[in-house]
């Protein structure tokens, strides 16, 4: 697989970083892109910090707060394409050649990523990765990004960042990155983006929307559950001229770490000399995240979006992920205050909810254990029954 002709060009008031990709027959030759549109990122956010928090010293006004994206955010380098195409190349069993400057550190780490991928997933074959120019990545303005979906995991990381703002040396999150991997468009998607902007504004951060065809481009070769960590890292690497540090919110906690696309042993390996990529928030289960932080944040409870089954940003209230989130909220005693899910949990519905995968069943068991620990044996019993009723499953994983 060959990556070449890396270019940054103006697009839709913003900037587009793209590269030509040539590979085996299973992947048509095409251009892969990461685009930061301008117009949607142009609105000044609502002012104000999270309730109860003072502005951190020296951050009276965040750098470049309301400015349009700049060309310099998306340097003409191959780092993003290395991260994006390593797993697809391994699936095809083709060496990956990046004909562009690539971080020497990232190039070294890629060997370890190959080892981990090959150990976790038999269908991925070890390949060699080479670059035209292994060079140190130049340092940018060192903004701090957090991938943000309005879900439990990303709110936990955002609220954790707010808690740590008073700590000496802490670098607060300055940019919430919303990546439209599904290439959604339309009124529901626009409303979802408005909510991301509102949360960003209330958090003293800027919302940055990124468009990319990466998911559609790689879908014939890789499973999203295995790949999405690399997809997030690739997006951060595309924005390497803006970011000095970027957080990926953990999906699982340290006591339960199955092979998964975003993982504490994996995410940091995508770092370069200029950009540190951090796997954040694996210290808590989903219910613990809700009980510790989301339950105390009206901003989170009013804007929580966990379900991608129907329309962007709309929680259906009926799928296993919605119901599992409702178990967590009810266990923490705040379901009635959540504005985006049904305010009452129907236990019959919970017991009967179809499970899409073995991972979903594991996640439901975990929610049940946490409910029991929080003094809700009724929720625990219903969640346990739901997990037991449906199975066994083929080896497909569900996003937690
Ligand atoms: Zn749902």
Number of domains: 2
Describe the main β-sheet briefly.
10 strands, mixed
Task: State the share of residues found in helices, binned by percent.
Answer: 25-40%
Number of strands: 10
Helix segment tally: 12
Average pLDDT value?
89
Backbone structural class: alpha/beta
Write down the overall geometry: globular
Structure in words:
It is a single chain. By secondary structure, the chain is of the alpha/beta class. The chain folds into 2 domains: 2-280, no CATH class; 292-389, no CATH class. The protein contains 12 helices and 10 strands. It has helices spanning 79-92, 104-120, 152-164, 187-202, 214-218, 224-238, 286-292, 298-303, 320-331, 347-352, 358-373, 377-389; strands at residues 2-11, 14-22, 30-36, 96-103, 129-135, 143-147, 175-180, 206-212, 243-249, 276-280. A 10-stranded mixed sheet has the order 5-4-1-2-3-8-7-6-9-10. Helix 1 packs antiparallel against helix 6 (224-238) and helix 7 (286-292) packs across helix 9. The longest helix is centred in the first third of the chain and has 17 residues, at 104-120. It is globular and about 60 Å long. The relative contact order is 0.12. The chain binds zinc ion (ZN). The site of zinc ion has 8 residues, from helix 9.
